[in-house]
Design goal:
358 residues; alpha/beta; 8-stranded mixed β-sheet; two-stranded antiparallel ribbon; 11% strand; globular
Length: 358
């Protein structure tokens, strides 16, 4: 993750009482929360009661998510302005923001943007997103044979998540900004027709999904990620600027869930196809795509850009590391396995963490 990707995140400290209401009033919190192991809740289907007698507060979860997303977008806007105005030709970040802004502006001007709007500082939702998603389903043998598909949590890929579950597959999706955990797995066999659509939303993932940790044995057969811009000739891709697709990819590599042969697909509007992402300026952690699905076509990029082999700690700030528990856990494991300290990158400014409620 280049430093601009990291500093614009919206970190979050998970406090169980933010979203969970216990039956007992003897204690104002759940059992102690260890930073060494993922905090896992499994919810029964069809109601909001967890097996341990805890109710899931949907409105509180969604309010917190929207608040943190807004803060992250504000900071991304500041970062974008600062780095594009720096004028440094050798700046490894400014050129990315220039392309992103051009695409965001174009989508708004051409009115191909869909809610949530404006699309700036988001993986943009677009007119025809559902058609592009169907191209993933109907146009790709890679999707047809996949048993488990990892899909990002953004709006334009909601239909991909729905088609994954409707097609009898397992859906692996990250917690938004990795703020409350790591990944959640949703098994279509455990969902009813009435809950599948809800399970494709952020609230639904938290409500119905099973959270997993680094020890989970899982094989991901296909990765679907969102993009702001992508080059169909090279497979070079730009996300919205936070770097979480790269973090997620790197951690899945560590887990052995994916390898170089795992196809990476993105679904975008045709207006998001560009020819000016310089491959030579991409950083080692940037994830290229093998296949692009738009509302009008399916493109096989035959990319030759190397895929990341894991987390590149020298690109990761101490602040980012301190605010994402799963990264600290992974770093500790690697250091224990190798006997070598993983040195982080330079310090950076990050948004304030959410305060713990007592």
């Amino acid at each position: 993750m280049d430093s601009n990707l990291i500093r614009v995140s919206a970190p979050f400290t998970f406090e169980p009482n933010n979203y969970l209401i216990t039956k007992s009033r003897k204690s104002n919190r759940l059992s102690s929360f260890s930073q060494k192991k993922p905090f896992t809740l499994s919810f029964k289907l069809g109601n909001n009661k967890a097996r341990n007698g805890v109710a899931f507060d949907e409105s509180a979860y969604e309010a917190e998510r929207l608040s943190m997303d807004a803060k992250a977008r504000d900071l991304m806007a500041e970062t974008s302005k600062r780095e594009t105005e720096s004028g440094a030709e050798d700046d490894p970040k400014s050129w990315k923001w220039i392309i992103r802004k051009r695409i965001w502006d174009l989508m708004e001007v051409q009115n191909i943007a869909q809610n949530p709007r404006p699309v700036h500082h988001r993986i943009p939702n677009f007119v025809g997103a559902s058609v592009a998603a169907k191209n993933v389903l109907t146009g790709l043998e890679e999707f047809r044979v996949a048993g488990c598909v990892k899909v990002n949590p953004d709006s334009p890929q909601k239909q991909v998540r729905l088609l994954t579950l409707s097609g009898g597959k397992k859906l692996l999706t990250p917690q938004p900004r990795l703020r409350t955990g790591f990944f959640s797995v949703l098994d279509s066999s455990m969902l009813s027709p009435s809950t599948i659509n809800e399970a494709c939303t952020s609230v639904g993932v938290a409500k119905y999904g099973k959270q997993i940790g680094l020890d989970e044995i899982i094989k991901v057969d296909l990765i679907v990620i969102g993009s702001v811009a992508v080059n169909p000739k090279t497979g070079a891709r730009l996300g919205k600027g936070e770097g979480f697709a790269e973090l997620e990819y790197g951690m899945l590599r560590y887990m052995g869930a994916i390898d170089d042969s795992t196809p990476v697909v993105t679904s975008v509007h045709d207006y998001q196809l560009v020819d000016d992402i310089p491959v030579e300026k991409l950083l080692i952690h940037d994830v290229p795509v093998d296949i692009i699905c738009t509302p009008t076509q399916v493109i096989f990029t035959n990319t030759t850009i190397p895929k990341p082999q894991g987390i590149y700690w020298d690109k990761l700030s101490p602040e980012k590391l301190g605010q994402i528990r799963i990264l600290r856990e992974l770093k500790g494991r690697i250091e224990q396995e190798t006997g070598k300290e993983q040195i982080c990158g330079p310090s950076e400014k990050l948004p304030p963490m959410a305060k713990r409620r007592r």
